[in-house]
Amino acid sequence: MDHGLFTISLDNIGRRFNRDWIFRRVNFTFTSGESYAILGPNGSGKSTLLQVLNASMGPSEGKISYTLNNAPLSHEHVYQHLALAAPYLELIEDFSMEEMIDFHFKFKSYLPGTDKQQVISLLNLKGGAGKQIRYFSSGMKQRLKLALAFCSDTPILMLDEPTSNLDQQGVDWYLQLVGQFTRERLTIVCSNQPHEYAFCKHQLNISDYKN
Ligand SMILES: Nc1ncnc2c1ncn2[C@@H]1O[C@H](COP(=O)(O)OP(=O)(O)OP(=O)(O)O)[C@@H](O)[C@H]1O
């Protein structure tokens, strides 16, 4: 599996909303083949940092830089190289599961060895294939978001609160996907639940960057 070697480097990054600094002086490098947990209590700034990392939000101070296969990559191209599953990233409710999968993979490639049928069987949602997503349970929606992200052929995988709405069986399913689909990728998990980030070798705690 060759996703390309990716790095994200933060040089004294800070972000504020109005007068409130959410985090400051973050110096950190994220590298392919490694998994990272961004930790901190509710409202501490995990999602904000993730949005800065995926270049959908700019930092208020400091510099962020990206490389792909050792060549600099400009901010506007970063989204092409990442797959994101997050509570604020909505599925298209009018679509069926199959339509949603087709739509997603118009923009992303399937990870080598996966295809639509494999995504569907991975989801294991009995009778769900033709049903509109608006009628899915919250756990089914979460599984779909995760399967789309895991099966995208991108060097970066970003997961914000990956097991929200999942029951124990869903958590076990998520951990199985982690084992299967994160190798050689740069994986970043925002979480405050140990069971969903325990596999991450590195941890970055937002509370350490409050002043
Ligand atoms: N666009 C915005 N404008 C103003 N304040 C914002 C904005 N986005 C986030 N915030 C504030 O920034 C802080 C950090 O929010 P963020 O969602 O990053 O935290 P979090 O650690 O991901 O929280 P949770 O664990 O609850 O998901 C919060 O106080 C939030 O209200």
Q: What does the average pLDDT come to?
A: 94
What oligomeric state is this? single chain
- Which blocks of ≥5 consecutive residues have pLDDT under 50? none
Which superfamily, in CATH terms, is the homologous superfamily? P-loop containing nucleotide triphosphate hydrolases
Taking Cα atoms only, what radius of gyration do you get, to the nearest Å?
Answer: 17 Å
Structural class: alpha/beta
The topology string of helices and strands comes to EEEHEEEHHHEHEHE
Distance between the termini: 41 Å
What is the domain total for the residues? 1
Characterize the largest beta sheet: strand count, sense, and whether it forms a barrel.
5 strands, parallel
Per the principal axes of the C-alpha atoms, what is the gross shape?
globular
Helical residues, percent: 25-40%
Assigned CATH architecture: 3-Layer(aba) Sandwich
Ions, cofactors and other ligands present here are: adenosine-5'-triphosphate
Protein name: ATP-binding cassette domain-containing protein
Pfam family, one: ABC_tran
Keywords: ATP-binding, Nucleotide-binding, Transport
InterPro entries: AAA+_ATPase, ABC_transporter-like_ATP-bd, ABC_transporter-like_CS, ABC_Transporter_VariousFunc, P-loop_NTPase
